[in-house]
Every structure is written in structure tokens, then in C-alpha cells.
Amino acid sequence: MSNAPQSKPTDIYASFKEDVNMTAAELTKWLKTDESKSVGQDSGDGQSIGHHSGERIVEILGKKKADLTPADEAHMHKVHSYVARHSAQGPHHQKDVETSPWRYSLMNWGHDPLKK
What we know:
Blueprint: H1 8-19, H2 24-31, H3 34-37, H4 49-61, H5 70-87, H6 101-108
Helix pairs in contact: 1-5, 2-4, 4-5, 4-6
């Protein structure tokens, strides 16, 4: 019998739940702010890629694990990769974090680096 790792959906679900530390309500409220809309790369429709991602994350958070689609899981992978990569690029001084575009961008992806 092999010691194969858990299937990818279980792994990505756990990673996603760990990375996304904002509730659906918190993220929905955040996405309506000017700060949220002020950051990120334009997706071509006037809204940032991260803002679109945040809306998709709210949808995923509203689903039961059993109802997740392969497209949901693909987005969860994207969220995990973004949060991991962007978290490593943060401001060097803690005092710069709270109102930084870096934090605002991460929050569009459901992760508030100041939330414990």
C-alpha cells in the first residue's frame, strides 16, 4: 500500500481555507470600497483582476465543499499561488502595511495580512 498524498482537491481546499482569512461578508464589504478598486492590474473591463477574483472567492465561500466544481478548484489554486507569491513581496516596514497597495491587493484576493 502506498503512502500517496491526499488528492489535490482536499489539499487545495485546506490551503484555500488557510489563505482566505476574510469571511464572505468582510470580502463583499471590502470589494465595495474605493481602496479595493484603487489597486490591481486592469482585466480589460475597467475592473482589476484581483477585484474579479474577490467576487469569485465570495461565490466559492458560499458553496459546500461537495458542490465545488473543477473551475472552483482551479480558482482556489490561483488564489493560493497569488497569496503565497504576493505575501512574500510585502513592505519591509510594518508601519507601511495598513494603508499599502500591497495589503489592499491581497485583501482583494481574500487575504488580510493584518488579520490574526
